[in-house]
Specification:
Layout (H helix, E strand, L loop, with lengths): L7 H10 L21 E2 L12 H15 L3 H4 L9 H11 L6 E4 L2 H12 L8 E5 L4 H13 L4 H4 E4 L10 H11 L3 E7 L11 H10 L3 E5 L11 H4 L3 E5 L12 E5 L46 H17 L1 H21 L5 E3 L12 E5 L4 H9 L2 E2 L1 E3 L3 E4 L8 H15 L1
Parallel strand pairs: 1-11, 3-4, 3-5, 5-6, 6-7
Antiparallel strand pairs: 2-8, 7-8, 9-10, 10-13, 12-13
The chain binds pyridoxal-5'-phosphate.
Length: 422
């Protein structure tokens, strides 16, 4: 039995009782021509801008204006160590130890750097296992690594597919793949939360399975970071990568994050691409020394990082530190559960939610299949003031984000959908 209720009054009540409701005011909410808030459901694609971001970036612009190169050491937040200001809050967001986490580069770049270190193919064990509907960038990256090592990309990619007539990947099938082909698979690389279906995988279970069969296991957590409790350290995964412009609200194209499990922190025998930022911090500026590998995830850095982008990430992470992932995921389950309830109350035979109904197997996103619909539905939603995402052939993805979306957002979204489908 559901504890949710239909009607606007219930949504208003939920917003009044929501301990995180005030955070909405700390974001810029896009508006329509009349100045009314749009119903923004695409925080899974580009998170909204915290109002504080401007001040964080402004601080660095001011220090640069006033100090020039001296800002590296004399800025209010010295740029030389700026990335360290992000490490603790980022590790709390993804459930890792500080030594395991670094903010650097962008997601796909980090994925390649991780494969440099952790994809070590041999003639017998060279395949890479991904989920069948993996995000295109991940698929292209994996295929190019296979080609780079001289393997055929068609033969080298093993797909974890949903069964015929189903949308969600099934763990038994993964077990079967690993039992039958495990000794040919070098790397298991799965999207921690699938971008299309919204399925949140059991990272620990997949890691254990992969490791049992001698595979390295990594995750792309682009749709997980800031959305679900990833517990990366406990998962035992070898590595993970993510971006910060989706649920972590750091602005378009901002830097990505990277996790490398503690057990690899001091391993100097891993293949790596290196640069001066991978070198021991104490002696980096002597500039003459033999290369001295920095321990932990920091040791995978190459370059001195873009401070303005890091300032935007810091503005957002400070807010995440204030709220904490526990409260955030608690509200998220309420809000998405309410969304699911309202969709089911529509009782429309053409509508099917692809995303798992178990709250532990999803984040805030629901992927909704509307049979016989086409892109016109998406245009109609946009016209009605709903910013959502359309995936061909017939899927709308909506992500009510607990930091800034309200129960009333969800209520009005479903009302508008009803109106359009009438
Ligand atoms: C968003 C996303 C990307 C984007 O990669 P960039 O390198 O940041 O452009 C890659 N993979 C997944 C799974 C994503 O969701």
């Amino acid at each position: 039995m559901s504890h949710y209720k239909i009607g606007l009054e219930y949504a208003q009540q939920q917003d009044e009782n929501d301990p995180l409701a005030t955070f909405r005011d700390r974001f810029h909410i896009p508006k329509d021509k009349e100045g009314t808030d749009l119903i923004y459901m695409t925080g899974n694609s580009l998170g909204l801008q915290p109002k504080a971001t401007k001040a964080y970036i402004h601080q660095e612009l001011e220090d640069w204006a006033n100090l020039g190169v001296e800002g590296h050491t004399e800025a209010k937040n010295p740029w030389l160590h700026y990335h360290e200001l992000l490490t603790e809050s980022m590790s709390n967001v993804v459930g890792a130890k500080p030594i395991e986490v670094i903010v650097m580069n962008t997601l796909t770049v980090n994925l390649h750097l991780m494969m440099v270190s952790f994809y070590k193919p041999t003639p017998k064990r060279y395949k890479i296992l991904i989920e069948a509907d993996a995000f295109p960038s991940d698929k292209y990256a994996v295929e190019s690594q296979l080609r780079y090592h001289g393997f055929d990309e068609k033969e080298g990619v093993v797909l974890w597919k949903a069964r015929k007539g189903e949308e969600l990947a099934n763990y038994e099938d993964l077990e079967t793949i690993l039992e039958t082909q495990g000794d040919e698979i070098a790397l298991v690389m799965i999207g921690g939360v699938n971008y299309y279906t919204g399925q949140f995988f059991d990272l620990k279970r997949i890691t254990q399975l992969g490791h049992q069969h001698g595979c390295v296991v990594g995750f792309d957590c682009a749709h997980g970071a800031g959305n679900v409790a990833l517990n990366l350290h406990d998962s035992g995964a070898d590595f993970a990568v993510w971006c910060t412009y989706k649920y972590l609200n750091s602005g378009p194209g901002s830097l990505g994050g990277c996790f490398i499990h503690e057990r690899h922190a001091h391993n100097k025998n891993l293949n790596r691409f290196t640069g001066w930022w991978s070198h021991n911090k104490e002696t980096r500026f002597k500039m003459r020394d033999e290369f001295d590998q920095l321990a932990g995830a920091e040791g995978w850095q190459l370059s001195n990082p873009p401070i303005l982008s890091m300032a935007a990430i810091r503005a957002s992470l400070d807010m995440f530190a204030e709220v904490g992932m526990d409260k955030l995921t608690k509200k998220s389950k309420q809000l998405t559960g309410y969304f699911e309830f309202l969709i089911e109350e529509m009782n429309n035979a053409n509508i099917k939610i692809m995303t798992p109904s178990n709250p532990e197997e999803r984040g805030c996103q629901l992927s909704i299949q509307v049979k016989n619909a086409d892109k016109k539905l998406h245009h109609q939603l946009t016209e009605a003031g709903v910013i959502s995402d359309w995936r061909e052939p017939d899927v709308i993805r909506c992500a009510p984000v607990p930091l800034y979306n309200s129960f009333q957002d969800v209520y009005y979204l479903v009302e508008k959908l009803k109106e359009i489908l009438k």
